[in-house]
Amino acid sequence: MNKEQKASKIRTKTVITSHANADFDALASMVAASKIYPDSTLIFPGSQEKNLRNFFIQSTTYLFNFKAFKDIDPSSVELLVVCDTRQKARIPHVRPLLDNPNLRVHLYDHHPDTDDDLVAEKSIVREWGSTTTIITSLIMEQHGTLTSEEATLLGLGIYEDTGSFGFNTTTPHDFNAAGWLKSQGMDIEVIKDLLSHELSAQQITNLGELLQNANNYDIHGIEILITEISTDKFVPDFALLVHKLMDMEDIKVVFALGRMGDRIHVIARSKNPDVNVGKICSTMGGGGHEVAASATVKDKTLAEVRDDLFALLYSQINPQIIVKGLMSGPPVTIEGNKTVDDSVELMTRYGLKDLPVVEKETMHCIGIMGHAIADKAASHGLGGMPLSEYMSQKFDTVTAGTDLYTVMEIILGNRQRMLPVLEDNNIIGVITRTDLMNMLIEEPARIPDSLMPDRRREKNIASTVTNRLPQKMLDLLNVAGELGNKLGWEIYAVGGFVRDILLGRPNLDLDLVVEGDGIFFAKELVKKLGGRVKAHNKFKTAVVILENGQRVDVATARLEYYEYPAALPTVELSSIKMDLYRRDFTVNALALRLNPDRFGQLVDFFGAERDIRNKTIRVLHSLSFVEDPTRILRAIRFERRFDFQIGGQTMRLVKNALNLKLFSKLSGTRVMHELQLIVSEEDPLACLNRMQELGIMEAIHPLLKLHKERIQVLIELAKVHNWYKLLYLEQSVEPWKLYFLGMTMGIKNTQIKQVTDRFHFTQREEREFLQLREMIHEALIQLMSWREGKSKLSRLYSILHPLPVEGVLFLMGKSRKEHIRRNISQYLARLRDMEIEITGNDLHELGIEPGPIYSTILEKIMAAKIDGQVETKKDELDMAQECYARESAKEDKADES
After folding, report:
1. What is the tens place of the pLDDT at every residue in 743-780?
2. Which of 185, 313, 429, 535 suits 631 as a labelling partner, its CA being 20 to 30 A distant?
3. Strand pairing partners for 492?
4. Which residues form the CBS domain (predicted)?
5. Residue 646 lies in a domain
6. DSSP state for residue 566 in the 8-state scheme
7. Do 574 and 537 contact (CB within 8 A), yes or no?
8. Quick one: which of 183, 687, 219 has its CA closest to 445?
9. Do 600 and 471 share a domain, yes or no?
10. Which SS3 state, helix, strand or coil, does residue 89 take?
11. Are residues 146 and 212 in the same domain?
């Protein structure tokens, strides 16, 4: 976009829109929302309903000043208000706005929740007859007023979505809103005219085709009518034809499929409470209510959509009989006070992969123990631990009356292999993944696409990748993918790089995983792009350093296992799924396909995208912290960095690892590495406070407990560190040194060696750290005698200059006296980097013989410059001669005596 084009765009902070293929409720709720957001711009989402389009062209465009998305400048938009939907997929016309991580979103809707719902700052959802009713009630609460035209349009939205108050979804709120709109000048005659539908000759022909193609199906005892129509042109008022069809044939449940061009339109209506058409259409990518819903499907044939529909109908209708017949009971259970070894023995005896855990002497289910986790725990020497420590406490349950589709969502969608069936909170049976798959093999209907594991795992985000990465990075990803194709290997970008694409955060630290030979791939990549390779044959990994300095870590797809708690990993070859499974948290267990034929497909085996949406840090398995306790520190780092929360089950495992004192088994080098990363975060204090709250600081070493005084100093250190960074001085700070001084403040010199030994300091590192503490102590004593306005600035310089910058900042943060802090800041900002113009060469040219006298002279000149006694190089040379003369006189006098 050139400057002139951008200048012609409308700049607006607030945009209001609704779902594509808008109906009257969508249109009316947008206009209603504009009364709450008066300085907003209305973006019309487009409609294919003929009567709505005509009304929009003739009246709404003029009256309410709607705009097209192309007319606005997206960069100016700060708030997006969405009406009559919450689903991201239903607002493609404003998709570019959603790529802005700082965009605020407000939602107004009356439809049920879906997995595709937007995350919003404000969400008002009420199960009323129309969204217009919801927003009208808010206008009423604010004592707003409407024009007659506005009241009529809002009334049109309510009348249409409630079937002129004839649908079962109509509520008293809809009547109340309509009554108020009437008082504002709503014209019922206009509404009547717009909602009265006289069928055209073409519509009568289409209705005849629907009647001719209609077939009744008995699905688990409920009669369903399914009909379809196929045409290259759009069929106006398709929903109206379905209403006419129901009235003519007295149909209770109907699904009408219409192929119109390259899309399949689905209209569903139900008068049977056992058939929730809203749920079915939502699964197909649409939405609606239990009694009325619709969906639009792209990239599928009519036959494929029909097959998907049958699958959903068979899985949902009359489910009670199926679930009762599917479950196994009574179940084999184990009491929660038993050990891990007990569960292994019981599962081995009965050939079970999972075991329900119940409270002692009851059948109240409190957890699920997996055979794989139990075996792994036993191999770590934890077989004697109570089951409650490692069982999964976060699990779904069903009752005998739960529909089969819910069972499929839990077992196939959420990957819960065993599903307890409860009655009065007691377990009466279980449904396993094997039970479900055996049933589905026997059923003529197949599993819905939305629940196929591969479909759930691989959503294509190529457009997001393209929009959020710089061109140089995109070029690199494309080269890697093309090279993978040439070698016959799958190539993936993995981990935090992919996570941060979804979060909209900058991250150019690229990690690649190769389903092949990672080291060979790295060498071939360098042949194409230039640079060099550092290979690590033991771990089957390599680091590519390109000519522009870009680093790319390349790994062979592998599975890591740990021989004992807190050990380093042993590496075996494996697939991408196993490679991701070895990672620390679900949010980091993501992969992005790079091969050209599937570029941008997101591989998500463990629900990472859901956890990112829910802002949750969750481990992949119960022994994650047992195998590597440093993951606890990483969990805190990610939690604070992204403003997430450690999940409940994961937090329980954190506390279990601390109770087992696993930090004591970690090498000090690994702990120090994680601490260095933590204090390099944008808000290290939040991480340190969280560590103290959980008891981690004491677990690392009892002397590191963050008492009140230490916390206060750490708060000040964070402030001075941020202040120093804003100075953009050449000398950078090593954050770990600064914060380690704060964390060890108050520890006696006789005890500090315990801490340095815990972190495996080398003799040199320990000596330097102890020396730094001593220098800080001495400088602090001297600072106490320095008086602002009375003592020379050169004295301040001589006190502070011997200290490394971390020591100076520590003094500044620790001091409670404002004048000392002010003078230290003056030293850092003005004096520390001050230089004199003359050097030893100049002294040599003055005829002064080299020796210790050089340092004496240069130091005195520096002091004089700081105190303003010399300004030019000539002044410095003159002073050098004077100093030399005085020093020489002193030496002569000394020789005479």
Report:
1. 999 999 889 999 999 999 999 999 999 999 999 999 98
2. 535
3. 513, 593
4. 391-450
5. no
6. T
7. no
8. 219
9. yes
10. helix
11. no
